[in-house]
UniProtKB/TrEMBL annotation:
Name listed for the protein in its UniProt record: Exodeoxyribonuclease 7 large subunit
Catalytic activity: Exonucleolytic cleavage in either 5'- to 3'- or 3'- to 5'-direction to yield nucleoside 5'-phosphates
Recorded name of the encoding gene: xseA
Subunit details: Heterooligomer composed of large and small subunits.
EC main group: hydrolase
One Pfam assignment: Exonuc_VII_L
GO molecular function: exodeoxyribonuclease VII activity; nucleic acid binding
Alphabetized InterPro entries for the sequence: Exonuc_VII_L, Exonuc_VII_lsu_C, OB-fold_nuc-bd_dom
Length: 425
């Protein structure tokens, strides 16, 4: 029987001793826990969350790496400061490996703040500089239009934010036209794209009534584009009333401060933009009822007032007022006649009294009582002045025999020539 030139070993080789995934994970877990039973780590907090269980989940990071961390509720309740993104911590704890996921994490039992993280510090400096320029002034905030017709939304077209926004807005008001202006909302270059989209929205014709800039929630890093200067300046310079709707309720972005209105989420922005159709219908119905009641009350009050006016004497008997005025006129006429008669009687009596006084002083009255008035006539040649002719003779010494004199009696005149002069003893 021929032999084979190259003998072959036909025995089956032994199977290598392989570890299961669980065994390997358990060995790594034991090695980690034995190697790092107690460790101090410093890093910046990111992706912080605290659900209802009270446990705190976060990521510690620096410039080159990051590690997941957890603070159980008991340890978290003993901390005297508030944990949040951007805070740099000095933490004590131990490493633990979570087998179902094959990931390791730092279990923190003590922590103290070291200071403000790099991102937080940069954010504070930018906020202070832009605030000094007046980009966040409350006096510059504009009110939103009450019933907008065209709304622009600067956001990622593939995110849940735009779906939530359209769903809520469509449910509240079906008459609003929405223009989605697509852009990236996170990552390198996202801030420039968002700013360019805002400027493009301001060039849309017909013009938009309201502009929404936002996205759904995320970590501080995810939302960082809304803290960058190009986005903040674009919002501040927007001619359209702008809503910042960055879905992060805890931290306020600089875009929130620059916008005319901040909404906690895109869904809330939709609620703030358009009133609900049902609410408007209810409001209109309430106003209509109030208007009807007001008109009815005014009508009733006017009717009562008109009835009261109609019952008054001038309207019920329109000629009474004229008759009263005629009666008053007659009375005034009678009183005026009586007063005039009395005045005339008084004046006539006064006139008679004055006439009697004048008559008693009149020369004619004296003549009537038997007296006479003698005046000079032509002179007999004694050289009297012609000016004496007609003057009253008051003394016999002023006459000479042969003088012509005139005597006026109560009735008629007498011309005489003086024959002799006799002076009274």
């Amino acid at each position: 029987m021929p032999t084979e030139p190259f003998p072959v070993d036909k025995t089956t080789p032994a199977e290598p001793q392989a570890l299961s995934v669980g065994q390997l994970t358990a060995q790594i877990k034991g090695t980690l826990e034995e190697t790092f039973p107690s460790v101090w780590v410093t890093g910046e907090v990111s992706n912080f969350s605290r659900p209802q269980s009270g446990h705190c989940y976060l990521t510690l990071k620096d410039d080159v790496a990051q590690i997941r961390a957890v603070i159980w509720r008991g340890s978290a309740s003993r901390m005297a400061f508030e944990l949040r993104d951007g805070v740099e911590l000095i933490c004590h704890g131990h490493l633990d490996l979570y087998g179902p996921r094959g990931t390791y994490q730092l279990v923190i039992d003590r922590a103290m703040p070291r200071g403000v993280g790099a991102l937080e510090q940069a954010l504070r400096e930018l906020k202070a500089r832009l605030a000094k320029e007046g980009l966040f002034d409350a006096a510059k905030k504009r009110p939103l239009p009450r019933f907008p017709r065209r709304v622009g939304f600067v956001t990622s077209p593939t995110g849940a934010a735009v779906r939530d926004f359209l769903q809520v807005l469509g449910r509240r008001s079906s008459g609003v036209e929405v223009l989605v202006i697509p852009t990236r909302v996170q990552g390198e270059g996202a801030a420039e794209e968002i700013a360019a989209a805002i400027r493009a929205a301001n060039r849309v014709r017909p013009a938009l009534d309201t502009l929404v800039v936002g996205r759904g929630g995320g970590s501080l890093e995810d939302l960082w584009a809304f803290n960058e200067e190009p986005v903040v300046r674009a919002i501040a310079n927007s001619r359209i009333p702008t809503i910042s709707a960055v879905g992060h309720e805890i931290d306020v972005t600089l875009a929130d401060l620059a916008a005319d209105l901040r909404a906690l989420t895109p869904s809330e922005a939709a609620e703030r933009i358009a009133p609900s159709s049902a609410e408007l219908s209810s409001r209109i119905g309430s106003l209509r009822d109030r208007l009807h009641r007001s008109v009815w009350r005014r009508t009733q009050a006017s009717r009562q007032r008109l009835t009261g006016l109609a019952a008054r004497r001038p309207l019920a008997r329109p000629f009474v007022l004229l008759e009263d005025r005629q009666r008053l006129l007659d009375e005034l006429e009678r009183m005026a006649g009586e007063r005039i008669s009395r005045k005339l009687g008084d004046r006539q009596a006064l006139l008679a009294r004055i006439a009697g006084q004048l008559d008693s002083l009149s020369p004619l009255g004296v003549l009537a009582r038997g007296y006479s008035l003698t005046t000079h006539g032509e002179s007999s040649g004694h050289g009297e002045s012609p000016s004496k002719i007609g003057s009253v003779v008051r003394s016999a010494d002023r006459l000479a025999p042969g003088d012509l004199i005139h005597t006026r009696l109560a009735v008629g005149r007498v011309a005489s020539i003086v024959k002799s002069i006799h002076s009274d003893p």
